[in-house]
């Protein structure tokens, strides 16, 4: 460990761990009933525990155990607590751990710490870790891989550093799994430099390590390192110590796909890594792709988790050509396209603007689970093809698959983009048939749907009567509707809520400023801008990107940093002349400021999406589809201009903005000018 890192983790006094060398139970290893010959009564109770089918059944068995002579048997109580944990019933398990068993085995501490972490009780999980150490139980490698995700979930880098200190003291730095979880924690807590340093210092990097450093940048669901310890069956003597684990698993039937089987001292141990990480979580997608290439050069074979991660990176970048290359790699290496990879491919193609290729992947899948159906439904929704999304939803339900909350978000977003309010309300109310309570994203779809349709009062009333507390996303959708319909009165009430919830977001100040500008209230515009300066809130720049020959080219407004800028602006001037001949008139109302019309028109010409489109025309074959990704909502004038450009150059132009996809063909947009 280098000095810089050592200094960063010494945030508290080092703890002293005492290794107990007495019995397997004190080492945290329950006795092996097959070798220690436990009484038949215990064997019978263990068998009943194993066959419990419900929490009620388990509670009845719990009462039965406490009426027997074995009510204080450590192994039996450990298995009882573990049974509660498997049902997600945390409180009884914790009570058995902390109140009933004297000197509980490390296995039970680990499982309880993991149980609280996996159920979102991150602080409680961390507290259990400290209680374990304060009680004199020594943590092991598994302990660290369970508590570090809790530190990451709580975004508590201070607790993470204390655990890191314990890892160093326990000399677990050579354990790849522990270091992978540690990198994951630092990355998710925003300590990018420390995470990168740890990764660079790892003497051996497994596939999971690369997955962690790559995947976190895209915010995947692989955000927790899990080791599934299904049952202890390991016997340790005072003369032999297990090398990497204290237990061996033998309930093979419950293992998930992709589990790893290790043989240690003649016994078997199973584990599986589900990891998240760093670069994509922090928006550095190009670095994530670079690491993937480095991983391949290092000869480390990518697994399904790696490929899902890389596909998500491609989806975030809008890198269709790179995504196709990854798909080709899957085919070439004959990697099985399971439901997780299939869903990632469907999502990648949809988010990169190729909904047809997304559908091809879906149609070719031999098995489709809820995630695959939801991915394709959401894909059609974001492309504004609400009728197709609804048809797929009905087909899915007809095939016996029950929708979940995410599926309904995909359907509702499609109706929102299409202005289909009656259908939207129908499906919003339909959620109750599946015992799904509307969440923030469902309400966001409905508020957006009503707002776009001009029903601002209805949208405002819905926000006031929501069953959950509205967040900035809900209020922001309503404020955007106020801008579209120039409603200052409701806008002022909405922005007050927004600045209370999210005062550092420049977008709210800008939106309200634009609402004032359309109403000619320039004194209020000046007031909003002054407020931004006083609060030191800066507006993030708008950008657009386009992929050409596998490379992503990005542009800002009036960007002249590109090597071919002179040619790009030449293309734009030529297009502007041809557009005017076709009848184009600039929508100068998009420019908010006291400027003459000519100056406003000049400001519109340099918008980032136009620069990206001009570069695409310049750099691709005639007739090739242009796909542009944009971080903000496309403005009215650019929307009009792109319709003209698509007709003039006879190309399909697909634009992904902050809200949805727009498909421009022959002077017409798929959104029907409703966005």
CATH topology descriptor of the domain at 58-217: Serine Threonine Protein Phosphatase 5, Tetratricopeptide repeat
Quickly count the helices.
Answer: 32
Shape: globular
- Output the CATH homologous superfamily of the domain at 58-217: Tetratricopeptide repeat domain
Task: Provide the CATH architecture of the domain at 58-217.
Answer: Alpha Horseshoe
Distance between the termini: 54 Å
Ranges where pLDDT stays below 50 over 5 or more residues in a row are: 1-13, 18-35, 215-283
Average of the residue pLDDT scores = 80
Identify the CATH class of the domain at 58-217: Mainly Alpha
| Main pleated-sheet profile | 6 strands, mixed
Strand content: 5-15%
Tally of strands: 8
Helix content: 55-70%
List keywords for this structure.
675 residues; mainly alpha; Serine Threonine Protein Phosphatase 5, Tetratricopeptide repeat; six-stranded mixed beta sheet; 57% helix; disordered N terminus; PPR_At4g14850-like_plant; repeat; RNA binding; DYW_dom
Describe this structure in words.
With 675 residues, the protein is mainly alpha-helical. Among the domains are: 58-217, Tetratricopeptide repeat domain (Serine Threonine Protein Phosphatase 5, Tetratricopeptide repeat), CATH 1.25.40.10; 252-367, no CATH class; 543-669, no CATH class. The protein contains 32 helices and 8 strands. The strands form 2 sheets. The chain has a 6-stranded mixed beta sheet, with helices on one face. α17 (339-351) packs antiparallel against α18 (355-364), α18 packs antiparallel against α19 and α21 packs antiparallel against α22 (421-430). It starts with a helix and ends in a 6-residue tail after the last strand. The model is unreliable at 1-13, 18-35 and 215-283 (pLDDT under 50). GO terms for molecular function: RNA binding; zinc ion binding. Keywords: Repeat. Pfam families: DYW_deaminase, E_motif, Eplus_motif, PPR, PPR_2. Residues 583-675 form the DYW domain.
